[in-house]
Amino acid sequence: MPNITLSGVAKSYGGHDYAVRNLDLTIPDGAFMCLLGPSGCGKTTTLRMIAGLEQPSAGTIAVGDRILDSVEHGRYVPPEKRGMGLVFQNYALWPHLSIRENVEFGLRMRKVPGPERRARAEEALRMVHVDAAMDRYPSQLSGGQQQRVALARMLAINPEVLLLDEPLSNLDAQLRLEMRAELKRIHEESGATIVFVTHDQLEALTMATDIAVMNQGELQQLAAPMDMYDRPANRFVAEFVGSPPMAIVDTGPEPGGLAGSLLRHVAARAECVPAAVGIRPEALRFGPPPAGAWHEEATVEAVLPAGSSWTVRLRILDTDLYAVSYTPVDSAPGDTVTCWTERMHLFDADGARIAAWDEAGVAA
């Protein structure tokens, strides 16, 4: 399928309240695109407009040269003619039908002949590793298996685009981990374009080829997962993507304490004066600093072990920060340690990241 293109798309439910505003987004053929953002940011509305369940108030949605929605030209293609499959957060399986019959349901509605229908259903169930349960009923399957059946039902009709609206949010941690791996494998094997809505940054970072971060109906950044993590476009993306989130310190007109310490370090290495400085928790290290690295003494306030990592809350001058260590932390609350970092993110007064600092080697 060609690229899916949203041009100037907006959705209003009356008055001046826009769920989505002026959205320009291209979803490449074969991509695994995650729409990521907090509740109410417009990501599900965007997915529903792509599916045809909602009509935009302005703008155009097209697949290649084929226009699916255009307010200007009065064009609207209904959902069943878009060649897309939609999987909701709710599995929506028929309880009185077997797993095989549930997966065959869409094919039956399309009047696919019986032998072909059964073959495609069985192949889809094999793809999601539930073929051994095809003669059981939904009530006899776990939540994770039911979600796989819902995916198989969509895969059986061979959609060119698979639209997933937070399908993993009802699962426990172990099942979510398994389903993330399954979805990535299915994407690689099927080659289908997948658009996945989530508020969980870990889901987006681990599965997506591209992430579109949204906030208050507007696109904040579109990038590959690690590019977005390493080079967030603005303060919102920097604080939303990452756990614990990036610590951002406002420098202010007369900075003192930690803000002053950071600003003096940055000012000695570049001409620009940032309005804020951000540090990722894992970029904050302990011990003797290397030459040229920013450093300060800190008081340990809490050590939170998490098995493979340790999160440490620190008081540096007048500010509390979190650090993440992947080696055991010997310090205890009340201890004084030296903290340092060589990686900073700098932001201007409008919250945009100052990209020029990358080239200077000051910000990462």
TrEMBL record:
GO terms for molecular function: ATP binding. The keyword Transport applies. The keyword Transport applies. PROSITE patterns: ABC_TRANSPORTER_1, ABC_TRANSPORTER_2. Residues 4-241 form the ABC transporter domain. InterPro entries: AAA+_ATPase, ABC_transporter-like_ATP-bd, ABC_transporter-like_CS, ABC_transpr_MalK/UgpC-like, Mo/tungstate-bd_C_term_dom, NA-bd_OB-fold, P-loop_NTPase, Transp-assoc_OB_typ2. Keywords: ATP-binding, Nucleotide-binding, Transport. It comes from the Bacteria. Pfam families: ABC_tran, TOBE_2. This is ABC transporter ATP-binding protein. The lineage of its organism: Bacteria, Bacillati, Actinomycetota, Actinomycetes, Streptosporangiales.
